[in-house]
Amino acid sequence: MKNFIPFILSFLILSCGKTYNPAVVSARKEASDIGVEIMKKGGNAFDAMIAVHLALAVAYPIAGNIGGGGFVVYHTSEGESGSLDFREKAPGNAFKDMYLDENGNVIENMSTLGGAAVGVPGSISGIFEIHSKFGSLPIEDLFQPSIELAKNGFIVTKKQEEALKDKLQDFINVNGSESLFSQNYKQGDTLKNINLSITLDKISKNGPKAFYEGEIAEMIIEEIEESGGIMTVEDLKNYNSVWRDPIKFKYKGLDIISMPLPSSGGILLGQLLKAIEGYDIGQFGHNSVESIQLMVEAERRAYADRSFYMGDPDFNKLPVYELMDDEYVNSRMASFSWDKATLSSEVSHGEVKTIEESDQTTHYSIIDADGNSVSVTTTLNTNYGSKVFVEEGGFFLNNEMDDFSSKPGYPNSFGLIGSKANSIEANKRMLSSMTPTIVLKNKKPSLIVGTPGGSTIITSVFQTILNVYEYGMSMQEAVNAPRVHHQWVPDVVIIEEGGIDSVKDSILKSKNYFIVSLPIKSDSSGMSARSSIGKVDAIFIDENGEVSTGADPRGDDHASILK
Ligand code: GLY
User: Fold this and answer.
1) Going by C-beta distance under 8 Å and a sequence separation of 6 or more, which residues neighbour residue 15?
2) From the CB of 549, is ligand 1 less than 6 Å away?
3) Atom 4, ligand 1: which residue's CA is nearest?
4) Cβ neighbours around 387 below 10 Å, total
5) In which residue ranges of the chain is pLDDT below 70?
6) pLDDT for residue 409
7) From the alpha carbon of 265, which atom of ligand 1 is closest?
8) Taking the model in full, what pTM does it have?
9) Per-residue pLDDT tens for 79-95?
């Protein structure tokens, strides 16, 4: 009865015509404002999604893109949920050992820098798929704000100045010193991208073919060939996005909807929440020794499974719900002890019984007045992707090929290792960690959440869910709270600044946990330099339908809400 009253209340309020305050949370104010403006003009959350995606491609070129790919998870006001996979694919000429030299060693930077790193981009296909299924405004109206933004320019922020400076030499090496991004931009500069505005205008008028065939496709292939790549015009022409059944599971009465393979995100999120469900983690307290131990031990086991079992479901027969089965997850946690850390060297992937048939990325969350909820994570992979800039088109190309396993056991840019399931094959999709997620409470949207951060995406989404539902934080507090991450290998617990005090640090160390405190400048344990974990952009809707937002202060992220 206790749980029934809020359900009845929210049902009555929402069925009496109360609508939600439309909101967008994304990596840039320009994009969030454009999304809300589209909804003000009568567009729905899917229309807003398209406009936000394009605005990020202009004003957030580090990860916003038309030369990359991503995933959408949605839940409609009619109660339908689903996902769209517009992930990049390997070119048709790709092959298993393409990044190895004659001695079988991985050639440094080949899967990350230059044309050979580029996967066939999916974003434009994804945008048009979404529009044909759910769009309510003309596509030209959704492109127009970004065409204008590219033409008039956006203001470079301090963080953008630093990120651009960090990659300046790569831009010069790959694209020459005259290239648009091979210049020294400072905070406050207006960065105009006229070629991108022309490209967007062409696509808006002529549809996805304008990108995947004809002159833009030829420009892409030319840039890729010049910098050592193997993609062909046929690869672009043959690209397709795929509607997939999302991952669905319950956690303590909440319904969770997340991204299926080729993202590992949904399955791992399910494994993690199921592994801790039997414990009252809320009582342990946020970032207490107990809660960190429990999360880390669940993460260690889940990431070991990731490395062995996961890849493109269109190429392999892979376990999905078997890995999230309660009995299986509990058996994996059987070796967990409160006394001391399990060593990752003692943990391998589990044995599932049967296999049934079956700072680099960016995330944005949207809700419209009717309650349509959209969660999108999109990426070029690492910052500015392959650094290959299609000069005449005004956009960067991804380096998503690095998300494949170049060689069994060899770590990618995120320290993740893989096996046969994620080996390189022609036209295959590389395994992802992106975890766009929607949580329903009493069948209504309750949380729309996701984040960039490579391997740390899954654990950041996991903790944001716990922060809201176990620790009772507001949306903004849940996003701000310091995060903790473990991914099996390397066997380190990464903790953001302010995440734990020295007493907890000593207790965890005494239990054999190897702690790396952020920020770190250089590689002390196999991890690259980094200052923070994830940039979560999320929306919370309470049981009365009140919308609140969390824009991550780790970036320039911004929430726009229509009151
Ligand atoms: N490129 C990062 C990911 O997809 O996980």
Assistant:
1) none
2) no
3) 432
4) 26
5) 1-18, 352-359, 522-528
6) 85
7) 5
8) 0.95
9) 999 999 999 999 999 99
